[in-house]
Amino acid sequence: MCVQFSAVDLRSFNVINGDGFRNLAQGLVNVGADHGKIDINTVLPHPTTVSRKTTSVAQRVRDGFLPEVQSAAKDGACAFDTDMWSDKFTKSNYLTVEAQYVTPNFDLKSQTIFVAQFPPKQKKSGRNIKRLLDSGLQKMGFALEDVRKNVFTTDQGSNMILGLEEYYRLNCSSHLTATILRNVFDFHKQKSKSFLYNNCRGRTL
């Protein structure tokens, strides 16, 4: 049945490892245990219903953790990180902001604050990044003066650096490591090509 599910709906084999899928499967099993064998079409909602419900569910989840993050940010005890990414199919660009903080009980937590889409055809300039970042944080109930008490971690993109010039910003060590490795491999790749060219001219390989 898992094979058929992946094949018929063109889903990744790994989807069955997802917490969301397993929660849904467990919920369906529980319905069967309570009500016996029933037609699944009487249980699963229409996609439009799921779409409409998403907004209220997302708000309920935010209401559960945002006050805690806002309190940490107000105390300067929060670390934000932000990055941009693109949907290669729709060509849409997005900005994501996450927060890491320690609760009064000394539990380290990480929460996605928001994901915002760049308006179509809008340049990913520093000014536009700042506008989208500030408006997203304010919509989530953060005071910008509180956010400025904390640190941001980003990549070394010039537009990202410019967009966060009003904030305390650090370079992401993972991005730095990736950049170093890419440059090292590119250097050796070019060096190898040069070696082959200089030593194999006029020869048949």
Quick overview of this protein structure:
This protein is of the alpha/beta class.
Topology at a glance:
Elements: H1 2-8, H2 19-35, H3 47-74, E1 78-87, E2 92-102, E3 108-117, H4 126-139, H5 144-147, E4 151-154, H6 158-163, E5 168-171, H7 173-200
Parallel strand pairs: 1-4, 4-5
Antiparallel strand pairs: 1-2, 2-3
Please tell me about this protein's structure.
- The chain has a five-stranded mixed β-sheet with strand order 3-2-1-4-5.
- The protein is extended and about 70 Å long.
- It is built from seven helices and five strands.
- The protein starts with a helix and ends in a 5-residue tail after the last helix.
- The chain has helices at 2-8, 19-35, 47-74, 126-139, 144-147, 158-163, 173-200, and strands at residues 78-87, 92-102, 108-117, 151-154, 168-171.
- The longest helix is centred in the first third of the chain and has 28 residues, at 47-74.
- The model has no long low-confidence stretch (mean pLDDT 87).
- The chain is 51% helix and 19% strand.
- Strand 4, helix 6 (158-163) and strand 5 (168-171) form a beta-alpha-beta unit.
- It is α/β, with parallel strands linked by helices and 205 residues long.
User: Could you give the order of strands across the largest sheet?
Assistant: 3-2-1-4-5
- Largest sheet, strands/sense/barrel: 5 strands, mixed
Estimated share of beta-strand residues: 15-25%
Pairing-aware structural class of the strands and helices?
A: alpha/beta
Taking Cα atoms only, what radius of gyration do you get, to the nearest Å?
24 Å
For the record, give the distance between the C-alpha atoms at the N and C termini, rounded to a whole number: 52 Å
How many distinct helices?
7
Question: Which term fits the overall shape?
Answer: extended
Report mean pLDDT, rounded to a whole number. 87
Please give the number of β-strands. Answer: 5
Query: Would you list the SSEs in sequence order as H and E?
Result: HHHEEEHHEHEH
Instruction: Give the proportion of residues in helices.
Output: 40-55%
The low-confidence runs, each spanning 5 or more residues with pLDDT under 50, are none
